[in-house]
# Entry
Amino acid sequence: QLRARYEEKLATGGWKTFVALVDGEIVGSASSTYLDGAVTLNGGAVLPHARGRGAYRALVAARWADAVERGTPALVTQAGAMSKPILERLGFRQVAEITILLDEFGV
# Structure
């Protein structure tokens, strides 16, 4: 079922993946999910050896520009400890807090 939902998002243009390059090497990736009235910025990550060189900021900027081009009025993201300060410097603000619960199997 999850695979079918993923394939549907890809087929309908509801999902897009971006990559960051440094000296021709893919050092990071991130994705956007397109919803009615918002774009969610998902799963941005940069390899440890490439951090501090602007790759994460470039991934945010590319997804932001893509959302603006689509006429999207809002960007939404769930930031982890590493990305939260970067996103705040880029103009994002916290509007909610999410608590993640794990089941007994750690899934």
About this structure: Strands lie at 15-22, 25-35, 38-46, 75-77. The CA atoms of residues 57 and 86 lie 8 Å apart. The chain has one domain: 15-89.
